[in-house]
Specification:
By secondary structure, this protein is mostly helical. Helix content is 52%, strand content 9%. The protein contains 20 helices and nine strands. Strands 3-8-9 form a three-stranded antiparallel beta sheet, with no helix packed on it. The chain starts with 8 loop residues before the first helix and ends with a helix.
């Protein structure tokens, strides 16, 4: 019947969509885009084209973005209809006063949660509406990286729509391969990948909690001071305005890297140069040197690298065969070696990481940005990205 919206409840439940969002989305199409569909229908009828009963009347080629713009408009109008401006402003001010005594990031998390529950909308929708009302510090609350929520953070600088401090690990790996500037900076070991950000490796910004690095409270409230900013560049060409066509551009593109070099790299460089002057020439002797340098016992390294004590003892013996790539990675993680030092170990074992092998490229980026993480964290990242973990049984098999 006319003016009827059909909803596939099974599909709606399977995709976790809110039924009210679906209804309003379709109402936007019916109200705002009626003429577009009507003209499409007339055009197709004149061309004697067959119109499927339950499909949109619109047609488009790969170069025609009209339908994309229509969908974009419906998607972005729906939450604004569900959270009316004046009413939401009053509710947000009420909640802001309620939680004003809490740390800012926690307060905004509570406000977003309450708005989400009150209006029955996703938390991301509540956050975006809050930002539109002028609460700009809420824009980096409820962000996600690697499929998980990251702790909220504050930037003193308002970000553009295509800027972010948060990046998924595999996107970082791809950018590391593509971007020479990023690769050179990460190879220096100045930045660690922590909570979805690339943060300066400094105790002011990074703390250790449960043997894993996390951002300090200061870093989370001064993210622009210590973390790298990424910018999304639209690589699909320039869209032109056409009268009578909805111009709501899809904001997608390749990531471009922006950064500032930190001054603490000089002290780290001097420390590493001193170590290089003292290190032996062979792999086994170098491993022993690193362990002695930080008072690491065989038993402790076995625990931190998920390897057997026998395997580590064999690796320290220069008369034995050189170890596998996985074993070198594991002891590097257990020793928390700087990137230059783990690269030196690989070189002395005559092992090279290849850019065209996805797993080895992951190892490369992780050795440069996650060398202070535990091997358990490494294994979580590897498994979540479809790779095998550095397993104890596999590593101990060399013994």
């Amino acid at each position: 019947a006319a003016n009827t919206i059909l909803i596939d409840i099974e599909a709606q439940q399977a995709h976790g969509c809110n039924v009210n969002d679906i209804i309003i989305h379709e109402c936007v199409h019916a109200y705002e885009h009626y003429l577009f569909y009507y003209l499409q229908k007339i055009c197709l009828s004149n061309n004697m084209a067959e119109i499927p009963e339950f499909e949109d009347y619109a047609e488009c080629t790969a170069d025609d973005k009209t339908l994309q713009w229509i969908e974009h408009q419906a998607i972005h109008l729906s939450p604004r209809i569900r959270m009316p401006l004046a009413q939401t402003a009053v509710k947000a001010a009420e909640l802001y006063d309620k939680y004003s005594g809490m740390p800012e990031t926690i307060a905004y998390e509570r406000i977003i949660d309450d708005l989400s529950e009150f209006y029955d909308v996703p938390k991301i929708t509540a956050r975006n509406r809050l930002v539109e009302l002028g609460y700009t510090h809420a824009e980096n609350i409820r962000r996600f990286a690697n499929g998980k929520a990251v702790p909220g953070f504050i930037s003193s600088v308002r970000l553009e729509w295509n800027q972010t401090y948060t990046i998924d690990f595999m996107k970082l790996v791809n950018e590391y391969q593509r971007n020479d500037d990023l690769r050179e900076l990460l190879d220096s070991g100045q930045y660690l990948y922590v909570e979805g950000h690339l943060c300066l490796n400094d105790d002011k910004y990074i703390w250790m909690r449960n043997n894993s690095p996390c951002l300090s409270g200061y870093a989370r409230s001064h993210i622009d001071e210590c973390c790298i900013l990424f910018t999304l560049i639209n690589d699909s060409g320039t869209d032109k305005y056409v009268p009578g066509v909805l111009n709501c551009k899809a904001r997608r593109g390749a990531k471009k890297f922006l950064y500032e070099v930190s001054g603490n790299a000089v002290e780290q460089f001097k420390s590493i140069q001193k170590i290089f002057k003292e290190m032996p020439a062979l792999f086994g002797e170098t491993l022993t040197y690193h362990m002695t340098n930080i008072n690491m016992t065989v038993e402790k390294l076995a625990e931190l690298s998920l390897m057997s004590e026998r395997t580590i003892t064999r690796m320290r013996n220069p008369k034995n065969k050189l170890p596998s790539l996985e074993s070198i990675i594991a002891v590097s993680v257990g020793l928390s070696l700087y990137p230059e030092l783990s690269s030196d170990l690989l070189q002395k074992a005559d092992v090279k990481l290849h850019a065209d092998v996805p797993l080895e490229m992951c190892y490369q980026v992780m050795l440069r940005t996650m060398y202070r993480d535990s091997i358990q964290t490494w294994n979580d990242f590897l498994c979540s990205n479809g790779f095998y973990p550095l397993r104890e049984d596999k590593l101990a098999a060399e013994a």
